[in-house]
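Annual report, structural modelling task.

Input specification for the adenosine-5'-triphosphate complex:
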Amino acid sequence: MITLRHRGPRSTWVFVIVSVPRGDFHAAADDVKSERMTDSEGGPDLTKDGPEDPIEPAAAGDRPLVVVENVNKHFGELHVLKDINLTVDPGEVVVVIGPSGGGKSTLCRAINRLEPIDNGKILLDGKELPKEGKELAKLRADVGMVFQSFNLFAHKTILDNVTLGPIKVRKQGRQESEKHAMELLDRVGIANQAHKYPAQLSGGQQQRAAIARSLAMRPKVMLFDEPTSALDPEMVNEVLDVMTGLAREGMTMIVVTHEMGFARRAARKVVFMADGQIVEENTPDEFFTNARTERAKDFLSKILTH
Ligand SMILES: Nc1ncnc2c1ncn2[C@@H]1O[C@H](COP(=O)(O)OP(=O)(O)OP(=O)(O)O)[C@@H](O)[C@H]1O
Ligand SMILES: [Mg+2]
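The model returned the following structure:
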């Protein structure tokens, strides 16, 4: 740690430069964040709970909500998903982590049927996803997806972005959709931005709007594919706060992220993917301190030292 002092005309500035590996940086940022969560300024109010909760997590009983069974997928010669098996229980948060090109995004897209699979099965709440048609649109609406880029409609207000799906796909009335949208925007801390356009919001606010938009469809499961990796560092935590809140409320989530603080805080299970395979499934604590496989240890040593 280096401390520099600058004595200005009216005040003394103290700069503290802390050198920490990337992983520790996020863990450290998480500590700062956990203090900020009690701060009433700005960010989402995650201390709220109770009867007004607009988020209705899946009530699927005891059966798994997502089952991926012996799934294979090629892009031409490239075998990108190699016999993938994964089960996600209702209310479970699974963090998927691994090197670039390992197949994490393809797996998310396959679960949402944005990407066809060669063989194997993907079940959502006990039902196999149909290949196409209306039934697919309906089932796909049960899976909320949040990408790295926020994909909001630029020419629509934030409120219109959030109400579009419920009105068009769920055939919900405008009034009811707007009421629910405002509850969700309040929940993610941007109700005061409802009438602005995406370009008028910061990256963190846009990503929170994208999360509200997904939640508006009342999905049974939420998939997040590196939702914070396009954000400036100071905006990462406001998005992770929202995701941590969702996890606490019992939302079933599959999250591709390298944010270890989030994984430790919110995940029940870490899935390490490399070269198209699930190489290791572990608890977050075990995975980050004592990974079982050499491949995972090697990956962790790289992200911890950069
Ligand atoms: N549409 C596509 N056509 C051809 N190859 C693709 C396509 N999409 C992905 N791939 C390839 O499939 C492999 C897996 O990609 P994928 O995006 O799933 O990896 P990832 O684990 O999400 O990587 P990253 O951490 O960089 O996001 C990569 O080799 C990639 O180049
Ligand atoms: Mg990816």
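The longest strand covers residues 78-88.
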